[in-house]
Design goal:
The complex is a heterodimer of chains A (268) and B (440). Chain A has 268 residues and is mainly α. Chain A is 75% helix and 2% strand. Chain A has 9 helices and 2 strands. Helices cover 53% and strands 13% of the residues of chain B. Chain B is built from 15 helices and 10 strands. Chain B has a 6-stranded parallel β-sheet. A 4-stranded antiparallel β-sheet of chain B has the order 2-3-1-4. The chains are: A mainly alpha (268), B alpha/beta (440). Chains A and B meet through helix 5 and helix 7 of A and helix 7 and helix 12 of B.
Chain lengths: 268, 440
């Protein structure tokens, strides 16, 4: 087995252990398991970063494997989780971030080792901007997706007076989940705009691809949510639902690269 | 001899409030010359006195210690022990340990799981330590009680949910707003329960309380109590956009806040969440407001339901807590028994070492001129033999003493076998048994 294959297994294992410990430690009072889970996730993230950096340093960027994009997505989720943890101390988001990063990472290992040539026009700064910003945005919206689901669930329980039992009683307040959503939209939308712009405004860009029109629709929806949050003070249920929708649409857009002919297409 | 441990007391179940008031004790009454002196047969003493209970935790030579405590306690209040006795309870040994653990873990409180009792016990213990009336047994008991209480609180849900309406409302507010240091509350009407909820909100760190009442003077009075702001009732909707939490308790016969009025308020607030707590009957807040986004409404019945569920949750937790207490009581009992064994074990080794020293001295005298190395080796040999020789009897002593009712018997046998009390055996000792066995 190649060294990098072994390292990938170690990263997946660290994310798996971290997910399990977060899950079992979520209700413990002492916080020992949560702390251990955070350390494992941090170790996985560090190794993940080193492997990605090594890959980026050693590649010529002319041909990128399909798994690279998926792994970048997984990295983005954990990166955003640690950023939000540092900003807001919301450990509960690990319940979404850790398993999601694991899932995406495992998918990245399972996808066939297809390699797609990167268009010559999409190289250097354009590629960095396009890929880096989009995957950070994916990470942000993945966390907003988790926070959105948690918000809607908690909101329904409180509104319907159904009571908060077990883990629901220990969850952070509604305002915390809403704040996570706000941060994700505030940072996510400019990143998405920049990422799309880097992809669209490169030389030799063609307008006839479905992914362009689809991404543009997502951008308009994102812009609407961003505007509503910023200007009219949208909060709570509607932005939570919007974040869930945007994340699912982003996933769909990413999957187009695997099934439709696009500029970074892995479509056979 | 095993220490006699007891808890003598009265509480909200055994005595009405006037009796509890009359017999309340102060931790400061512990010192040796006070009304409850620490004198034989009492060896250790801690007094716990709260509004719901008065308890004397004591250690003595035997049951007469608790009688003495009762007598002195009654005397200190110019009463006779017989007058006080019907209101009291007495727990002895294991039951006393179990009771102390239950009280510290708040299983014996009027409000199951309330947190104050542990602090009160800690205060009482501190006073006793200061006065020098808490010694080995009560020190051990108290430290164990504190750790049991902590264990119960962390491993069960005994204190996890609010069991009063006003506190339940504040807990719900925390679930909506999280940290409430930036939130403002408004009291519409100045009822007693609203005031209580406002107190809890202040304790939770709310930034400001506004009070709107039909009688402005009363609003000012209440606002002053919370360093808040009184607002004119007629201009309620001008100030409502500033409030995140609204507690309403007016005597109005019609709704004071309607869903349609609230839409404008929400717009002014940029749709920041609002939590309405309607404790008025008939209700002050139109139930339709709960259908608006970012608005949460709980009326008195909703809150009662939350409280009842929480009480049920605490009852379930109490069963789990009792299991912890039973286990820890058993462990503490073992520790108490080991205290009982200690003097015998010390005497046993002391006697062994004494014999060893004497025999060593005789041997060295016989050997004459011995170098230091040989002398040291012989000393080590003797010490090691004593330890090894008595190890098995000590293990046996510890094992048998754990068996119910055997502790005292086995200690007495051991002391007789090794003659630890250094009694002279009379020449006709055991004559009756010798005769029975047909010995000459």
């Amino acid at each position: 087995m190649h060294l990098f294959d072994s390292l990938r297994l170690v990263i997946a294992l660290l994310y798996l252990l971290s997910s399990i410990l977060f899950l079992f430690g979520v209700r413990s009072e002492t916080g020992g398991r949560r702390k251990a889970a955070a350390w494992l996730a941090a170790a996985g993230f560090l190794l993940h970063t080193l492997v990605l950096m090594h890959f980026l340093a050693s590649t010529s960027f002319r041909v990128l494997p399909s798994g690279f994009y998926v792994r970048l997505f997984s990295w983005g989720v954990i990166a955003v989780f640690f950023f939000l943890w540092w900003r807001m101390r919301v450990g509960y988001l690990a319940l979404v971030a850790s398993p999601l990063a694991l899932l995406v990472y495992v998918v990245s290992m399972a996808v066939p080792g297809m390699r797609a040539p990167v268009p010559a026009s999409l190289s250097g700064l354009f590629l960095g901007l396009h890929i880096g910003t989009l995957f950070l945005c994916f990470g942000l919206m993945a966390i907003a997706f988790g926070a959105g689901i948690a918000f809607l669930h908690l909101n329904r329980r409180i509104k319907s007076k159904a009571g908060l039992k077990g883990i629901q009683g220990d969850m952070p307040a509604l305002s915390t989940f809403d704040e996570v959503n706000r941060i994700a939209v505030y940072y996510g939308f400019p990143l998405y705009t920049l990422g799309l712009a880097a992809g669209f405004f490169r030389p030799n860009f063609t307008w006839d691809r479905i992914i362009f029109w689809f991404s543009l629709i997502v951008w308009f929806l994102f812009a609407f949510v961003f505007h509503q949050r910023l200007v009219t003070g949208w909060r709570g249920r509607k932005p939570a639902q919007a974040a869930i929708a945007i994340f699912l649409l982003l996933c769909l857009a990413l999957s187009f690269n695997f099934v439709l002919p696009t500029s970074q297409s892995f479509h056979p | 001899m095993k220490e006699y441990l007891f808890v003598l007391g009265l509480n909200h179940r055994t005595a009405p409030v006037e009796i509890r008031e009359r017999f309340a004790l102060d931790g400061c009454e512990v010192p040796k010359n006070g009304p409850l002196p620490l004198e034989r047969p009492l060896k250790e003493l801690i007094l716990v006195s709260t509004c719901n209970r008065v308890e004397i935790l004591g250690v003595g030579d035997g049951p007469e210690a608790s009688d003495k405590a009762l007598e002195k306690w009654a005397e200190s209040r110019d009463m006779r022990a017989e007058e006080l006795r019907p209101y009291t309870y007495l727990y002895e040994d294991s039951e006393a340990v179990r009771h102390v653990f239950s009280v510290a873990a708040s299983l014996d409180s009027m409000v199951l799981g309330e947190p104050q009792i542990l602090g009160q016990i800690k205060d009482a213990y501190r006073e006793a330590v200061k006065a020098g009336t808490s010694k080995v047994v009560l020190n051990g008991l108290m430290h164990k009680a504190f750790s049991v209480a902590k264990d119960v609180r962390t491993r069960t849900e005994i204190a996890s949910a609010a069991v009063s309406i006003s506190y339940a409302a504040v807990e719900l507010a925390k679930k909506i707003f999280g940290d409430m240091s930036d939130n403002r509350a408004m009291l519409i009407g100045a009822g007693e329960m609203a005031e209580l909820a406002a107190t809890h909100l202040m304790n939770a760190g709310i930034s400001e309380i506004m009070v709107a009442n039909r009688t402005f003077r009363r609003a000012e009075e209440l606002a002053g109590r919370f360093c808040g702001r009184a607002v004119p009732f007629e201009r309620l909707f001008d100030f409502l956009p500033e409030a995140d939490i609204v507690i309403s308790s007016t005597g109005a016969t019609e709704a004071v806040v309607r869903a349609k009025d609230l839409k404008t308020v929400l717009k002014k607030r940029k749709y920041m969440p609002m939590f309405f707590i309607d404790i008025a009957v008939p209700r002050d807040i139109d139930p339709d407001v709960n259908a608006l986004d970012n608005v949460y409404l709980y009326d008195i019945d909703d809150l009662k339901e939350v409280v009842e569920e929480n009480i049920e949750k605490r009852r379930d937790a109490a069963d789990k807590a009792r299991e912890i207490i039973d286990r820890e009581t058993e462990r503490f009992d073992e520790w108490l028994k080991s205290l009982e064994l200690k003097p015998t074990i010390v005497d046993l080794f002391a006697k062994g070492e004494d014999i060893g020293r004497k025999e060593l001295a005789k041997t060295l005298k016989r050997l004459g001129d011995v170098d230091d190395e040989t002398k040291a080796a012989l000393e080590t040999l003797v010490e090691s033999m004593v330890k090894k020789l008595y190890r098995e009897p000590v293990v046996y002593l510890k094992r048998r003493s754990r068996e119910e009712g055997y502790s005292r018997k086995i200690i007495s046998e051991m002391r007789r076998i090794f003659n630890l009390d250094r009694k002279k055996v009379p020449p006709h000792a055991h004559a009756d048994r010798k005769k029975e066995h047909g010995e000459e």
